Amino acid sequence: MDSNRIMQQFHAIFEVFMVFFYLLTAVFLLFYADRWFSIDPALKIIISVAFIIFGISRSIQTYKNIKRLFFTKETDDDL
Fold first, then answer.
1. Residue range 49-65, pLDDT digits in tens
2. Of 30, 31, 19, 29, the residue nearest 58 (C-alpha)
3. 22, 51 in Cβ contact below 8 A?
4. Taking the CA atoms of the chain, what radius of gyration do you get in angstroms?
5. By residue range, what is the domain housing residue 31?
6. What is the pTM of this model?
7. Number of structural domains, the chain?
8. CA-to-CA distance for 56 and 48, rounded, in angstroms?
């Protein structure tokens, strides 16, 4: 296995953690931010929805990337 492919796989796994970060940040802002911060409710909802949309789009891209890197037999010449 080429070291470039290993780095791509590592990056794909890191992307999974980032997807969880985005989605958990959105949940935190929606439900728990009032306890620690004084944030305008409209701004809180706008930011949370943006994080949710971005998290979902990143999860779709990450899924495709993981499927390509871990479950196909392509070589680096095919990229």
1. 999 999 999 999 999 99
2. 19
3. yes
4. 17
5. 3-78
6. 0.81
7. 1
8. 12
